[in-house]
Write a structure and sequence with these properties.
This protein is mostly helical and 98 residues long. 57% of the residues lie in helices and 0% in strands. The longest helix is centred in the last third of the chain and has 18 residues. The protein is elongated, with a radius of gyration of 26 Å. It starts with 12 loop residues before the first helix and ends with a helix. 0% of the residues are buried.
Length: 98
């Protein structure tokens, strides 16, 4: 289908310049990139990304807690308080679940 419609948008010059450089490295123009974006929106009937307020904390609280538990278990192993020994894979998984 022939491209006959025109789209005019306003964007910060710095973002436009950064996007043009990125797209040039990808081998596409700004126009082609916008066309890809719009096609993806139409195909998915949604934005091709998940909008959210602010950047989520990385790592989040759950990940920090898991890291702390790993550090605690490692320290127990190093000090000899916990020396895991397993005869079967089933025993290993049973221990991991406790």
């Amino acid at each position: 289908m022939a491209k006959t419609a025109t789209l005019s948008i306003r964007i910060e010059p710095k973002i436009k310049s950064q996007a043009e450089k990125l797209f040039a490295h990808l081998g596409i123009s700004m126009s082609e990139a916008m066309s890809l974006f719009l096609h993806q929106c139409v195909n998915d009937r949604a934005l091709p990304f998940r909008p959210h307020l602010g950047r989520p904390e990385i790592p989040n609280d759950e990940t920090l807690a898991a890291m702390a538990e790993g550090d605690r278990l490692l320290e127990e192993i190093k000090t000899g308080k916990r020396i895991p020994r397993f005869n079967t894979v089933e025993e290993l998984f049973a221990d991991l679940e406790t």
